[in-house]
Prior knowledge:
Number of strands: 16
Distance between the termini: 85 Å
Largest sheet: 7 strands, antiparallel
CATH architecture of the largest domain: 3-Layer(aba) Sandwich
Structural class: alpha/beta
CATH topology of the largest domain: Rossmann fold
Radius of gyration: 32 Å
Number of helices: 15
Strand content: 15-25%
Oligomer: single chain
Shape: elongated
Helix content: 25-40%
Amino acid sequence: MPIQERQGNLQTTVVVNSDFGPFTLDLQHVEDVKELIALGKKKPDERDPFSVIVEEYLGGHYLHYTKYWNPNLGRLMKLFSQEYFVEKDWDVMEEFKLQKNRKVNPTFKVVKIPGEEGQQFLHTGVRLLQNGEGQRMVIRYSTDDDGDERISVYHVRQHGERPSLASLAGSMFGYRIMEDLVEAFFHRGPLKGRFFDLDYNFIEKDENVGNLIAWDGDVKAELKRNVIDFYKAMPKLQALGMNSSRGIILAGPPGTGKTMIGKWLAASTGMTSILVSAEMIRNRGSIKSVYERARKLSPSLIIVEDIDTTGGMDRRVADHPLLGEFLQCMDGMVKNSGVITLATTNHSQSIDPAIADRPGRFDRVIEVALPGLEQRQRILERKIEGIEKHKSITKKVLKSIANRSKGLSGAWVIEVVQFAQVLALSRDDELMTADDLETSLDDVLARRGLAYRIDSMPTENPWKDDEDGLGALWG
Length: 475
């Protein structure tokens, strides 16, 4: 039985010589028929109840395609899918969950999106769908053993789809349905324009956060020019074929409000904003996934807290496994059109020159210095506003506290007021006094000084001459 060849490709058609003469036979058709016969011979009780329901609803043997996401993103995807399928003219004919081979009510959950009421979505269950043209589809919402959220699409095998080929290629119908869903999700879903972290936990956009920052006029002007104005110019830059991505580093001592500035930008621009910190980076690929999401949700702002601990270490000191990933993501083969990266650092000297000294990665380094006298006084006045206080706290007293707090960051100045309130409450007296502020400032100055003295404490054995006593226990 020689096998026919067509255009150099091996075919499944063979020629059979019989007593009645030669005839051709397609071995693929034989395999298809065998499988259909086997399916027909199966007893209903040999198949799981779900398969029976799906086959009966679809009217034949089905194919399926599944996608899954981490819990937070998956719940949002399930929520959005309900609206999406309605928009695509799919009507819900029935919804249920199988429990011990019988249909019961599906499981619904509620997701809270900032600025909106909680929204209910089908979390675990099955929906039988039909569109206006009479086409049918089954959607299954489930959760796997790892906690990942799954959506599966089931549809009847289309004419010409062969079982053996389908098992290799998968369900193209289901694939297209899910890919269109994901594309629509990132284009106009619940993440668009929101503020969230790498694990897709929403963060409230605080419109008043700018009022809590003791602004340096030069810093605010730089941010307006390099972030807010740049964001507004993005469409024009893209139309001109120019670079529409930008990177900015906010460098300065701890407690100077760098993270608050990032939150202010997230609230002020209206961009989709993603917060990234070192503890969220769990493995290679995490940074790459951030930029993939940011491109899909652009225009977007990526806020990287403490980049020196996240992936921007200096290679002159030590190799960092995530530095190469940062470099590739910020200026690699894929352009980050419409993406602004804002990174903060307490140690600008620890940022590798390859990441900080090249346009297209980080174009600006903006110094956020310790607050000056006027800034410290504004922080005190703003923080003490609304607090019940004794008449001894005057503007003169606040100016004196601001003078004595030279060298303190904004966070430490706020701590002066907070600890003064603790002192007032410890006396069972809710009225804060000038003495409380003075005592609190002395305490803060002592605590801050201790933090800087720890590194300079002697490491030599203080009992080195006591060889038989404490000296023997040292080290």
